[in-house]
Amino acid sequence: MLARRVQGRSFLSGTRHSSTVDxxxxxxxxxxxxxxxxxxxxxxxxxxxxxxxxxTELYQWQSKNLDxxxxxxxxxxxYANGDLHMGHAMNKILKDIINRFHLSRGSxxxxxxxxxxxxxxxxxxxxxELGKDSASLPPSDxxxxxxxxxxxxxxxxxxxxxxxxxxxxxxxxxxxxxIDHAYQMRQLRxxxxxxxxGLIFRRYRPVHFSPSSRSALAEAELVYKDDHVSHxxxxxxxxxxxxxxxxxxxxxxxxxxxxxxWTTTPWTLTANMxxxxxxxxxxxxxxRTDAEAPLLIVARDRTDALVKILGSxxxxxxxxxxxxxxxxxxxxxxxxxxxxxxxxxxxxxVTAASxxxxxxxxxxxxxxxxxxxxxxxxxxxxxxxxxHVGSAGxxxxxxxxxxxxxxxxxxxxxxxDEGSRAVVDLLKQAGALVKIQRIKHSYPYDWRTGKPIIVTxxxxxxANLDNIKGDALxxxxxxxxxxxxSRARLTSFVQLRxxxxxxxxxxxxxxIPALHRIATDEAVLDSPTLEHILSVLNEKGIExxxxxxxxxxxxxxxxxxxxxxxxVWRRGTDTMDVWFDSGTSWSMLSERENGVSRSDLCLEGxxxxxxxxxxxxxxxxxxxxxxxxxxxxxxxxxxxGMVLDEKGKKMSKSLGNVVSPMTIIDGGTNVKKExxxxxxxxxxxxxxxxxxxDSYLGSFVLSQAAEGVRxxxxxxxxxxxxxxxxxTRSSIQRVPRTELGLVERYxxxxxxxxxxxxxxxxxxxxxxxxxxxxxxFANIVLSSxxxxxxxxxxxxxxxxxxxxRATVTVLExxxxxxxxxxxxxxxxxxxEINESFNETDASVFMTPWTPLPPEWEDQxxxxxxxxxxxxxxAVLAGLEEARTDKKIKSSLEADVxxxxxxxxxxxxxxxxxxxxxxxxxxxxxxxDATLVDEGSLGTxxxxxxxxxxxxxxxxxxxxxxxxxxxxxxxxxxxxTFTRSSSDPLCPRCTSVVHSTPG
Length: 998
Fold this sequence. Notes:
By secondary structure, this protein is α/β, with parallel strands linked by helices. 37% of the residues lie in helices and 18% in strands. The strands form 10 sheets. It has a 6-stranded mixed β-sheet. It has a 5-stranded mixed β-sheet with strand order 1-34-35-32-33. It has a 5-stranded parallel β-sheet with strand order 3-2-28-29-21. A hairpin with a 6-residue loop joins β34 and β35. It is found in: Mitochondrion.
């Protein structure tokens, strides 16, 4: 409520402004804040001073505390192929916040940073640096270059991770790399266990294949782009009519009947082996407007949609899909399968949702087609599968055998480019092309190269997931997911998989140690052979598989007397999927009480539901003994989203919107636009966002994070300055809880609530809840209220006064608790505060976070203070009006009078005011505040007067508020207007000065 101003005559005769007392004469007697804790330090210098203490040294110290319960956070390995980006920074900072929280609460943390060192990204980087392509170098040179590149990039990333303040032992011995010998041997033993359980097999079948990588890919290595453009075609196949005289009630006579088919991959038509129909669908015979055109068979439910392709049509007959099954048709390309007719087959995956309701089947280039042929027993040998696509995604010379002489134009052409266009030209020449249609649709791309993939048949190693899927899903039931909705995502991915293609056609990777009989190319991969091979590799190193003689790897049982081993056997050249590499990393973890290697927690980006989260689960369940097959490799999974720019766009070099974590820490070339923020500001930003979803980052949100850290820093600085040195504090007796005043009990209540909120937020991995509560407490409870009303007592009261000791008692609790709360998020700032306060070089994390006891919760004090704070708001509004009207500069120039109504029954609020009357001037930061009966105001009119009212809680009465000039003179020591004109100081300052030694 706004105050109303009342103008009156002056009763002070101007004496209050004519004092000649020196307002600075007693400054030395004040207890003004003193601290070496800098206001605006250089973040880079401060963090460098504490980096070793709060990172490697701290991790090594805590790892030796074997009596503590262990918390294992398992690190998903990033690729060792470049500088850190914001995704890396968010990921590692989130993990570090979690680790530091568990450490501060008394756990011994096991956190071993790792790197994924194999795979195409590193191989490509090495080749680019050499200026060569893979075809121009021997495999050994590629492996050597990739190994060197991986080690160099690990060194760079390791240094940058340390700049983020990540607590770990960063020596090589306590990190893991998928190129380390011990790691690879564990991986191969996991693989051996899966072989022994009959889960690994080799098959020639269609797989996702990347021509740009020249390797097979797993589903997890694909990204789907919705704007892919394909040139789809409608083509016809002639139905052979010699055994079919009637179609429904229609007499064919001499008419030609064709099967109309639509495909988005015209290049696969040269490998056509059947046309599939759904037996449950009705099909129709249609005639186009052109009477001479052949009759067409399509699904009945597609006729309306096909009018746009065919023009006007007439339905002249209908038949069920079951009647089409088994009919023969002629191939488009005359040389194709000349020795046998092609058949119409049944397939449940055919629908009438798109196309024509008839599907061209090329089982070498489609999983559904392949399974349909398998189910019908049409694929008994590898040779029965028609495939003429090479390792670069090009048509091979085999296409000539299938298509005939015309097929020579296809040889060597990429099937996704010139090859597809050449097939369309052949379709035109054959008279089979009805329509070309350009469509935009979702299509799989190689996530590493960003180029489209194909589906084509190759010989690959697979893991059979059907046999372990049930155990894997059962294991997931005991896993806790953050956010909870992510459970459905991982569960659905596991449910939908039946196989995992684990082989890759790369030279840089862990070999699949299989022997192949040269005469038949039969692969031998069994337990005895693997046991022999692994013993050799363990002794001589993994590289020996590529460089050592084949004789070393063929066990005696497979050797033929008198025949050189090299004439009978060759080693396999396939390497393992990198997801298998990183997926077996659980095997390096400390074994728990049940003998199982298992982490408490894994945290990665949401894309790892398709990758690392799955590969850990599948390799752990797949290699476990039967008694442990349902045990999961992790207790909880946390996923985070992507980091986007301020406009919500994905960061991209081409868009110029990439924000580097190192630029945030060290500043950019233009420090005005890209200031030096340091790691703690970056960490505070990570802790302030809802990281479970995508997060936005730019200059504005960074400046907000910097302001948040600055407020917390200033809070600590104010407290440190007023608490004084360790020696000074040791001489001050703390005030027991029972003797604290209302304000102090309220602040402790709020501090206890803050701490409980923080503990809950950390425990639920909801860090934004922690940072928001901390920010609010520092800004609202402390800076805008408690610090403001405490300054007078801290500066002007005697060092041993109970009022000051009470404030010091509370401030000490606040500093300790706030430091504990901030430490996981802002470790460098916490270390700096701890060093300044405790005058020690021991890490703040070496002292356990001990929460405040429950007795500090004081709801009564909270309720009463909320009432007084409502009154304070009303009074401050009146003071602000007086300041605006230039009646006062400082609120200390005013007194407040609260006019208590004359009531028969006392009200609780009035009783509260009466009890806390001495507190009121402190709350209002005025020189005096008194309760006045309405009938005792007298007749004197002040120079000016502002009046307002406040509704008294739980009553119909109002409390009148009068703001008037202070009635006494300004004290030159404390600057309150509490001095009698005849005295040099106010009574309080007189007492303090006279009692101070010296």
